[in-house]
Amino acid sequence: MQDYSSELDKRIRPFLTPTNDSWRVDETYIEIRGAWKYLHRAVDSEGNTLDFLLSAKRDGKAAARFFRKMLKAKHTQTPRVITVDKNAAYPVAVEELKQDKTLKAETQLRQSKYLNNRIEQDHRNIKRIVKPMMGFQSFNTARRTLRGIEAMAMMRKGQVKGINQAIILNVKNQM
Fold first, then answer.
1. How far is residue 16's CA from residue 38's CA, in Å, rounded to a whole number?
2. What is the mean pLDDT of the segment spanning 126-153?
3. DSSP label at 44?
4. Which CATH class is domain 2-174?
5. What is the Cα 20 distance to its own chain's centre?
6. pLDDT of 84 over the 90 cut
7. Residue in 56, 64, 57 with CA at minimum distance from that of residue 136
8. How far is residue 109's CA from residue 31's CA, in Å, rounded to a whole number?
9. Which residue has the higher pLDDT, 118 or 139?
């Protein structure tokens, strides 16, 4: 998975379908060498994956880096609303991006525990695959493996133009 994940991710990026302007952003924990690291993830209101970022810290700098990465992606559009949980890092990051003019001033930040259920359920699919691995031995291994897992999840969700869902389901059933 590690050898081909970056190539797979690089090849599917140009073919991702455009997402909408309502983002759900959250982070989950991943164990790397016995320490917990943070996997920042975002989906749109329809459940399509926007992007992800593995980070050692859960602070405003990491959140701002994640938002910048999402805004640079070709398949995303500038958000109208960003829904986050009560993490204090997100308002700091959004204000920083608004002052930089990276993010529109009209972008609304909603902090709601219950409106993020879509991404909390999406974390479940990633955790289901990662948990049997019993953690990762290095940060780079985790990053490369998660890149492949996320690419496969995007294909399974039907976000990649030109990939037939029946083929993905057939391969999954044969495993």
1. 25
2. 90
3. E
4. alpha beta
5. 15
6. yes
7. 56
8. 29
9. 139
